[in-house]
Write a structure and sequence with these properties.
This protein is mainly α and about 120 residues long. The protein has one domain. The protein contains five helices and no strands.
Length: about 120
């Protein structure tokens, strides 16, 4: 289960958000990857594994397993407090069979369950 206190996972979530949403701060071509600005955690969570891999390819998190990225996206959605995003947790890979196999790991399933529970409690 995911803790509500600040943990190394929380720090990692912030790093993932920065890697996905922050444009480069240098003109050095070594550090300039694709711009990922403006994409929500819900949008990224609904992408297939192939689409998500293509999205993060060339970033600082290229070598992070997709299951960890998906776990962190679920945590971000759970922490958002936006009940409308709960549905995105049920549609990884846009509900296409086997498109998001990285969601089948226990860590991702636990994070999704935690996020749904957190969002349902915040709705009361």
């Amino acid at each position: 289960m995911v803790s509500r206190t600040a943990t190394p996972v929380d720090v990692y979530v912030v790093l993932v958000q920065l890697a996905i949403a922050t444009p480069p701060l240098t003109s050095d071509p070594v550090w300039n990857g694709p711009i990922r600005d403006g994409l929500s955690a819900a949008h990224l969570g609904q992408q297939s594994d192939d689409e998500l891999h293509d999205r993060i390819n060339g970033s600082a998190i290229t070598f992070v397993p997709l299951s960890r990225v998906r776990r962190n996206l679920a945590i971000v959605i759970g922490n958002s407090g936006d009940r409308e995003l709960a549905g995105a947790l049920d549609r990884p890979g846009r509900s296409v069979k086997n498109a998001a196999r990285s969601t089948l790991t226990p860590a991702v399933q636990d994070a999704i369950a935690w996020a749904k529970q957190r969002l349902s409690h915040e709705s009361r």
